[in-house]
Structures are given as structure tokens and as C-alpha cells.
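Task: encode each sequence below as C-alpha cells.

Item 1
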Amino acid sequence: DFRIDLHGLNYHPQAAGLAAELQGAFPQCTVELVESGGGAFEVFLGGTQIYSKLATGRFPAYQEIPLLSLG
């Protein structure tokens, strides 16, 4: 299951797009959007962080998260 932590509602369009992308790639998965703080846009798979906007300084590219999750 995927969890996306985001800061504020400004990131909601990106998070919603990523949630749709993940559910298209992995129909059996559950995607949870969790509001957090500090400019975060962090993606977790099964409790393990697989992407961090704070670390990369950018939002993930299209299909980047599904590819990372296969990793």
C-alpha cells in the first residue's frame, strides 16, 4: 500500500494525479493521502519511504513512482 504525505492543499493536484497513476499501475493497491508539514511530498510503500521531494527538491516525474516501487 502507498502513502503520500503532502504539505498543505497546494500539493493536492500533484498528489491526486499520483494517486490515480498508482491506482492505474497497481489496481489492487490502496493509496492514502496524508497532510503533513514543511513542504513535504513524500511517498511511502509498505512503511518504507521510496521518494522524497525534500531530498530531491522536485516533484516526481510521470511514472517515476511506479518504476521506483518495482525497484
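Item 2
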Amino acid sequence: GDTVAVLCDGFDGHAMSYVGGRYAEGPGMYGCIFFTAARDVEPGDVVMVRITGTFGGDLTGGAVEELSEEE
């Protein structure tokens, strides 16, 4: 799926995943993006998320780690 920048709103204990919205859009414009991450994500962090599915009107995915360039 596509990879999008997500502004994290926090952790949703009911969904057991982080939740946020597209960084470039206003709040609530396109629903929520629920995502998992291998590291702790704080509210206000911008995370790159690969979209892998949908749930109702919302999107689901997983955070992708930035790859460092090795020489």
C-alpha cells in the first residue's frame, strides 16, 4: 500500500494500536489511521505508515522505519 505521513494523536487502548491522521490534512478530513509500531510513539510525533487495510471508514497500517544510507 501507500506510505503516508501520520501525525500521531496517541494510543487507542480499545484498538490496541496508535491512532492519528494524515499529517498534510486537517483533523478529521479523511478519517483516522490506526497503526502499529515497533517503538514507542508519542502524541505529536510524525510517523511514516504503510497502509495495509481498512476498517470501516478508517485506514490501518504499520509504521515503517527510516532506513539509513550506508556507504
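Check on item 2: Strands lie at 3-12, 17-22, 33-36, 46-55, 58-63. The CA atoms of residues 6 and 41 lie 11 Å apart.
End of task.
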